[in-house]
Each structure stands twice: as structure tokens, then as C-alpha cells.
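Deliverable D5.2: sample structural annotation.
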Amino acid sequence: MTITPTTHVVDIVTTAPATIAVFQRHQIEFCCAGRVPLEEVCVHEGLDLDSLIDELTAATKPFAETRDWHEAPIAELVEHIQSAYHRPLYEELPRLRAMLAKVVARHGHRLPDTLLPLQEVFAVLERDLVFHMRREDAILFPAILRVAETPGQADGDPHPLQAPITAMERDHDQVDRAIAGIRALTSGYLPPDDACPTFRGLYYGLFDLEHRMRLHVQLENDVLFPRALARGQAL
């Protein structure tokens, strides 16, 4: 969509739910009280209109990997995974949890077979993902970088990184099962016809979470881990 100064906030989030995160970041009401033009919101909140439009427009563009990481220095690859996936997830998971809690509070009584199990599955997913990323950031990634700096560490058999990488791959399988459960509970992230912007934004956020997790896991399973386990190659 084309976002202009006179576009109403509620119309922006209804057409492009990805923009909800931007409004939340600036603490702008986007749901029931969002029937105001963007320029009026900026005046009231003291925000630069052009900058906000740029942020909102950028949010509507699908996230994608734009670089082939097979040949990049492995230290750059590790930093990319942390900056493009881990650090955003540490912020995104609590945001989705809060939105889910709000949707459950408002609509859980009429959709108990969907929203209450969804909240339970998401809680497990968030717990497991945070624990997983912290182990990667604190243990596995530093170990991969040490092997990259001193290739002789990988001469032993089995490879010193094999056990921790295998454990991370098992975690990835567990995350995939949880996401599949979320997809099933939400009927493929399809909100009810009468869903409010918060409800629609939650389902879009869960859809986007799956999209980014697939890129994230593929980058680790298919690029980082095989390169880390390779012997006699420059990392």
C-alpha cells in the first residue's frame, strides 16, 4: 500500500499488519482508537512524519536473505545470525507474548479451543527459543570461532563441535514442531473475519516468526554447521 500523511492508522495496520510493530515501538495506538490520520498522530506525538512513513514503508517489505553466506568469513556469518535473527528475536518474542495475552483476554472466552492452547504452545516455544539462543551465543558460537582461529583444534575424532551442533539441531527440530502446532491452531495464520487489528497483527506476527525462523534455521543447519564441521578448510 501507499502510505500518505492522510492515511488513517487503522487502515495502515489493517492493510499491512507488519506495521504494527512500528506503531508499538513509538507507543502509538493502532487498534480501536486508530481512526486518525498519520499526520495528526505525528503532531500529537512529536514525531517526524517523513521518518515515520519511511519506517512503516520499510516494514511492509518481506524479510529475505540477500547474501550467499557459503563463502563469507565464518565470523561474519556468526555476527549476521546474531544481529539479523537472535537480537531481533529477543525483542519480538515478548512483543508477541504481550499481544497474545491481550487477544486471549478479549477473545479467549469465545475461542477457547484456539487461543488458550495457542498461548500454551507459544509459551513453550518462547522458553525453548530463548534458552537455545543463549546457549548458542554463550557456548557454541564462541567455540566455532575458536576452531576457526585455530584449525588444529578440529583434528580430533569425533570433531569437538559435533556434540553441541547435534544438540542444537535437535533443538531446531523441536522448534519446528512447535511452530507447526501454532500454524495448525491458527488455521495457517488466518484470523476470524471480525478480528480486530491487534488480533490480525498477532497472527501476522506469528506468520512472520515462522518465515524468519525457517531462514534462521536453514542458515545454521545448511551453512554454518557444515562449515564449522569441515576439516582442512579455511573458515
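Annotation notes: The chain has a mean pLDDT of 92. The radius of gyration is 21 Å.
The annotation will be released with the project's public dataset once the embargo ends.
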